[in-house]
Leucine-rich repeat-containing N-terminal plant-type domain-containing protein (Stephania japonica), 814 residues
Amino acid sequence: MAKLIMLCLLFLSFGFALSCPDDQKQTLLQFKSSILNNSTSFLPSPQGLHSWNSSSDCCQWMLVTCSTRSMTFRPVVSLDLYNFVSSLPPEANPVDSSALSPLFRIKSLVMLDISSNSIQGMIPGDGIANLTRLAHLDMRDNSFNGSIPPQLFGLRNLQYLDLSSNLFSGNLSKEVGSLKNLKVLNLAENFITSEIPPEIGNLTNLQKLSLRRNNFFGGIPQSILNLRRLEALDFSNNSLSSEIPVEIGSLSNLTSLSLSKNRLGGGIPPSIQKLSKLGTLQLDQNLLSGAIPLWLFDIEGLKILNLGGNNLTWNNSAANTSSTPKCALSRLLLRSCRISGHIPLWLSAQDSLIFLDLSENELEGPFPDWLAELNIGTIILSDNKLSGPLPPRLFQSLNLSVLALSRNKFSGALPENIGNAEIMILMLAGNNLSGPIPQSIWSIYRLLLLDLSRNNFSGKLIPSFNPLSLLAYIDISSNRLSGDIPASLGDRTRILRLGENELSGQLPPNLSAMSQLEYLDLHNNFITGNIPESLTQISTLQVLDLRNNSLEGQIPEALSDIPNLRILDLSINQFNGKIPPKFGNLKAMAERRDLEVSLSDIFNFQIEFNDLQVIWKNSLQGLPNHNLQIYSLLDLSINRISGEIPASLGALKGLKLLNISHNNFRGGIPSSFGGLENLESLDLSHNNLSGEIPQTFANLLQLNTLDLSNNKLSGPIPRGSQMDRLIGSNNYANNSDLCGMQIDKPCPELLPPQHSPEPEEDRSKDSLLSWKATCTGFPVGLAIAVLVMYFSGYFSLPPKHHLRSQRHRSSRRH
């Protein structure tokens, strides 16, 4: 009996010993409480924390792991809090980094994962310094900011450190070299700005190192060659210069080397051929020069090779006569490598190839049959000189997902079997393709993007969509399509470009069925009638271009109710009546922000896009798509609009360009125009405007293009830092009696003071801004709005002086 009692007592004692320490339990409950108190807008606990309560052992809680090595207590050694706030509603406040403070008191922690939680703020350095046993720390995909705390580099037991996808800034301390047990270091996708410290070479146990997408500059330190255990090295998307270390091949364990999108010069180091384990080599978009060495293709394990966008050259004839490559490539990207001649024949033996990019080269000849039979998933051959018809065999492949052949010399009709393809992205712009668009193309249910622009397609456009169609982007502009605009254009269409065709008739009455439409371009057609009410009901519309048609009637006031409309071009039509005063309510034009339409938001595929080509300020300019900011534009020029300019337009403070020239406006220019702080181009020419130019124009600090000619304006031209630069008689020609230094005509001495206050009634009348921005001489309205078309190639607009009678068809390139 005594033995039984002793056994029970021992069992009870052992049971209590296996509980987590009470202080750690209370600390975890405090952490939970701080998360709950962070937002009072929700009731349920975040994901996984509902099991955390005071009545249970914390070692039994979800997301918590305790040690099993101790016979007296079970300290918490692991917290897996990945995405634990995923259950928070969108309106909940983001978690502040101060909420993590309780966790930093659990000194027994060996593993801490708080990734993907959108936590914001700085990492408490003094707190994290307590976690001296920590071996695994994952804080990726949050919103941590400030510098990486130096205390973190004192955690000498760390083997895994991931701080990627945050907002860290400042420099990378040389103290990083003290983490000599590190096997994985990932600082990618932050804003760290410094040279790579040479001390990083002290991390001789590193297997994976990523500094991708930061602001590192200077050269790659030679000490990197000390990392002999390194398997993956990624320094891409920085500003590194100098050359690739000559002995990079001494890192014999490398399986992946990514140095893309830097400023590295010199040639490809011959030592790379020693990297027998190399599977991925990405050196694209640098300043590398010289010939692409053929020995690269003898690295047997090489699967991914990207050398595009350098100053490299390729000897096609030598490659075709050399021995068969030993590698079995899955992805080959040689964009802009000066490859001439036919598509390299040796590729016909690459049976594993799923991605091929030979764009922006000098390839010529037909599309080879053997390439059509390879069953490649992505083929990008844009910007070459390839010619002839497209082989029907190409569209029999069940693997082909992306076909980009834009800006070549392909000709003939599209194969009738194109509807059998399983393709998602079809880009054939800028060729010489002709004939009708095959009806079967609309039955490709996987098709997301269709670009047939700038060809010679003719006939009527009669799409018959698959009910399951996913088509979101349609560009058939600059062809010879005729007939009415189809009544059905897909209820999932987001971008529709039918401009520069020969379409006629009226706008369909059921346009509102395209409830997701964001971009509508119908410019340079023969469309007649009024703007239907259904068009004004598309609440998602951001860009509307109806320029150069024969539309008439009054401009619908309901256009002002479209909340996202920021690009509106109705120029060169026959609209009459007045500008609706409610146009001052165009919300998206009153705000300065980026255009929300983005191809990267619509499609999930990786293609190297060309810069956006736009006509802006009388020249063709390329704007990088990765940092492009779209302008808000309003162009109502060359119509029959009359009345006074509504002062309410002054609320459109996000406008960059305003053009209401060549109309019948009368009265004065609203003084509220002086509040258009972002205005760069303003054209009010060829109207019947009278009175003085408002002195508030002196406040237009961004204005660099101004045309007030051919009106009845008088008085002094306003002075100011920017107005003083807008000199030249052409800007002010053919007015009643203007004077000022801009036209080299002195004003009388007895003119009223420039800054005299307006009468109260005049101020109230012109209380809001009415303005217009344009590039003098041509309709730029929608030109800058082709952000969403940035991979359709060069884009040009007809000069403004080509009026309605001089249609674009008489001078098209076809």
